């Protein structure tokens, strides 16, 4: 699970190099971060480039450690090419949902690989829902599917309450990307693990229901 594949090394290296450039060059950071106003003005490249920038070293480290821990699961099932597709699709799905959710907030901005990394995390959970995960402050391991569902429910709450300086919307969009790509690459899961596919879809369905009702 923790073996470093070339694809994982390449993504971590890209995130580190671009983030370091952003740390040392405010003009570069401002030009390539996710910004609603700039994207709507035509700078669509920000929807991808923002996923390689980070606010600080701790932000970068947290995302890269999460990627490191779960990339191997997805690569073992799908291989490096499909892993990279899931990563890219999740990054863009996170940006698209953030753009949709914050479309009337021209000064809204964000950075980070969290959307893409959450997509990899959710893909890994869908593939191995019963793997045990250690959670801070919880003394016993928790099944991965419980963590996945709980995390997305928290993301919905964070989106609704605008909690902290965190891109909850991008996280959720990334999870949708990871979930959809996993089913696209392995549709047999709909038959072999129907219950888990349905359970992991519940937060996604809830988000869209709340959105339609205007409650988020």
UniProtKB/TrEMBL annotation:
MF (Gene Ontology): serine-type endopeptidase activity
Keywords assigned: Hydrolase, Membrane, Protease, Transmembrane, Transmembrane helix
Pfam families registered for this protein in UniProt: Rhomboid (PF01694)
Biological process annotations from GO: proteolysis
Subcellular location, principal: membrane
Compartments in which it is found: Membrane
InterPro entries the record matches: Peptidase_S54_rhomboid_dom (IPR022764), Rhomboid-like_sf (IPR035952), Rhomboid_protease_S54 (IPR050925)
Topology of this chain in the membrane: Multi-pass membrane protein
One Gene Ontology cellular component annotation held by this UniProt entry: membrane
UniProt KW Hydrolase keyword: yes
Signal peptide extent: none
Domain Peptidase S54 rhomboid stretches: 43-186
Stated family: Belongs to the peptidase S54 family.
Protein known as: Rhomboid family intramembrane serine protease
């Amino acid at each position: 699970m923790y073996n470093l594949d070339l694809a994982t090394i390449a993504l971590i290296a890209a995130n580190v190099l671009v983030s370091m450039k952003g740390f040392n060059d405010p003009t570069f950071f401002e030009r390539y971060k996710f910004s609603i106003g700039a994207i709507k003005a035509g700078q669509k490249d920000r929807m991808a480039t923002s996923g390689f920038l980070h606010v600080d070293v701790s932000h970068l480290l947290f995302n890269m450690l999460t990627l490191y821990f779960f990339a191997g699961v997805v690569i073992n099932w799908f291989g490096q090419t499909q892993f990279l597709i899931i990563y890219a699709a999740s990054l863009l799905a996170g940006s698209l949902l953030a753009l949709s959710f914050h479309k009337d907030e021209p000064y809204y901005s964000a950075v980070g690989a969290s959307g893409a990394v959450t997509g990899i995390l959710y893909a890994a959970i869908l593939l191995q829902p019963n793997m045990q995960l250690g959670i801070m402050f919880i003394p016993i391991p928790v099944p991965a599917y419980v963590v996945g569902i709980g995390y997305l429910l928290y993301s919905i709450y964070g989106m609704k309450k605008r909690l902290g300086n965190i891109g909850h919307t991008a996280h959720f969009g990334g999870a949708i990307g990871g979930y959809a790509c996993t089913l696209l690459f392995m549709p047999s899961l709909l038959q072999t693990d129907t219950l888990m596919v349905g359970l992991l879809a519940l937060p996604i369905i809830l988000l869209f229901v709340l959105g339609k009702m205007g409650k988020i």
